[in-house]
Write a structure and sequence with these properties.
The chain is α/β, with parallel strands linked by helices and 309 residues long. It contains 8 helices and 14 strands.
């Protein structure tokens, strides 16, 4: 006589969108999915967040623009992409062949650019991720993401034009991440993504030149995981759904991120070392649920038990 065994529920809700599981391939590391699609069915992922898109095509920064560092990497790729029109005509149809949610990451120089891209995307993607870590031309180069008022302005512009829920991707290079998160929440964000890369730099001691052509870049990889978990933990009380990312490479990392408060977890730089990293994390999450007798993976979100102050 067979027992009625129920499979563990890996589904999660991210800003009103149901994902079959919490594993997301994050922007900037997965391209538009074509290369990784040669290794496995990308439809097994909870979601794919595409490479950052701008209104017009961009060639990116000159090389060298990627360099390995201890426990991570630096990059200053510079948002190389074909532009939003080419994404919609050439890349999105490919992604829509797979049973996975599609998140479009957009970057702009002005609030108006963000609004135009959100409007173009309409309802053709499942979520829009607004990257506010790019230079604001109108504010003399200040990053949108480091100023609450500017962050709110971009969020409002994108939200008014968007046909899908809006996540706002925050930079950790601020004094108080919760302050910025509250500003975008009040401006209408449906959720937040965090963290983006940490600012970093390395120097070649023989040539005395920075190892990146743009001098500084964004640090990612295992080294930033504790920072990412801390940021997710700090915004957990705001009531916003969180896509947590930054240094996640194992199922244990993903569990930590969810316990800190994330509803879904992004895999990024780990895929450069191991293209199968998302699949291994997904398998590991299922094994963790079985060993800890969990019926729903969503039970982990916010489950950290802080020590008393």
């Amino acid at each position: 006589m067979s027992e009625n065994v129920h499979a563990p529920d890996l589904s999660v809700n991210l800003a009103g969108v149901t994902l079959k599981n919490p594993v997301v391939a994050v922007s900037g590391t997965f391209g538009f999915g074509r290369e990784y699609g040669e290794y496995y069915d990308i439809g097994r992922l909870g979601a794919v967040c595409v490479k950052g898109i701008t209104l017009l095509p961009r060639g990116g920064n000159p090389p060298p623009r990627v360099a390995e560092t201890p426990m991570g990497m630096l990059n200053s790729v510079g948002l190389q992409n074909p532009g939003i029109d080419a994404f919609l005509s050439d890349e999105l149809p490919f992604l829509r062949r797979f049973d996975t949610a599609v998140i479009a990451n957009i970057s702009g120089n002005t609030p108006e650019e963000y609004a135009r891209m959100a409007e173009k995307l309409g309802d053709m993607v499942d979520l829009i991720e607004v990257n506010i870590s790019c230079p604001n031309v109108k504010a003399g180069g200040m990053l949108f993401g480091t100023d609450p008022a500017l962050a709110a302005e971009v969020t409002r512009a994108a939200k008014r034009a968007a046909g899908r829920p809006v996540l706002v991707k925050l930079t950790p290079n601020v004094t108080d991440i919760a302050h910025i998160a509250l500003a975008v929440k009040d401006a209408g964000a449906d959720g937040i993504s965090l963290i983006n890369t940490l600012g970093g730099m390395r120097i070649d001691t023989e040539t005395r030149r920075p190892i990146l052509r743009m001098n500084t870049g964004g640090l990612s990889g295992p080294a930033v995981l504790p920072v990412a978990i801390r940021c997710v933990y700090q915004v957990r009380g705001l009531g916003l759904p969180v896509l947590g990312m930054g240094g996640v490479s194992t199922a244990s990392d993903a569990v930590e991120m969810m316990l800190a408060g994330a509803h879904a977890v992004g895999i990024g730089s780990a895929m450069f070392a191991d293209p199968y990293a998302p699949m291994k994390v997904l398998q590991g999450l299922g094994e963790f649920m079985a060993s800890h007798h969990l019926t729903r993976i969503s039970e982990l979100t916010g489950g950290v038990l802080p020590w008393e102050a």
